[in-house]
Specification:
The complex is a heterodimer. Chain A is an all-beta fold. Chain A contains no helices and 11 strands. Classes of the chains: A mainly beta, B mainly beta. Chains A and B meet through strand 9 and strand 10 of A and strand 5 and strand 10 of B.
């Protein structure tokens, strides 16, 4: 059974960079035709797709965030990561990592709340 | 970007009743690449339906997805107590992937 777990600071100051890591267990991040994705959800609101990465390093980003987002993968650690620069209060949200299989997201992490505040 | 509009925003029903949730797309969703997710408070979304009508592993057959093009529907034939939650549609026919704003199914 594949499991994903997000980790990283729960509090980030405005204008700084948000950094999160997703650790995949129960299977190799390199096996299969999977993309590895990040999604976020502000409190009481809907879901926003941030972007995804393939284990080759190929990435796709939401144009609304593209200038500030970097997603990377470390296959040796079975992890992938999210960096979001120049954060503001509008970036406060629960951040989820997930596995994408042919487009749909079949396994999700439990989510981690990141608050942007001074 | 494809905008997904879900209706109604809230559905108030009793256990045992039938729930019909709609998801409309601003342009045709390629190859019916549409998924439905269920989310309960404090938990991550759970995949229910992919490719518009295929149930994900372990999903009971009371959940049925249908539709194509710009109009999609999730039907829950008889609501069980555990089905009261928020439901999201998501398209993956084009980038960026987008989600609807959600439909809350609440106990009447």
């Amino acid at each position: 059974q594949v499991q994903l777990q997000e980790s990283g600071p729960g509090l980030v100051k405005p204008s700084q960079t948000l950094s999160l890591t997703c650790t995949v267990s129960g299977g190799s991040i390199s096996s299969g035709s999977y993309y590895w994705s990040w999604i976020r959800q502000p409190a009481g609101k809907g879901l926003e797709w941030i972007g995804r990465i393939y284990t080759s390093g190929s990435t796709n980003y939401n144009p609304s965030l593209k200038s500030r987002v970097t997603i990377s993968v470390d296959t040796s650690k079975n992890q992938f990561s999210l960096k979001l620069s120049s954060v503001t209060a509008a970036d406060t949200a629960v951040y989820y990592c997930a596995r994408e299989i042919y487009g749909d997201l079949d396994y999700w992490g439990q989510g981690t709340l990141v608050t942007v505040s001074s | 970007e494809i905008v997904l509009t879900q209706s109604p925003a809230t559905l108030s029903l009793s256990p045992g009743e039938r729930a019909t949730l709609s998801c409309g797309a601003s342009q045709s969703v390629s190859s019916s690449y549409l998924a439905w997710y269920q989310q309960k408070p404090g938990l991550a979304p759970r995949l229910l339906i992919y490719d518009a009508s295929s149930r994900a592993t372990g999903i009971p057959d009371r959940f049925r997805g249908s539709g194509s093009g710009t109009d999609f529907t999730l039907t829950i034939s008889r609501l069980e107590p555990e089905d009261f939650a928020v439901y999201y549609c998501q398209q993956y026919g084009s980038s960026p992937r987008t989600f609807g704003q959600g439909t809350k199914v609440e106990i009447k």
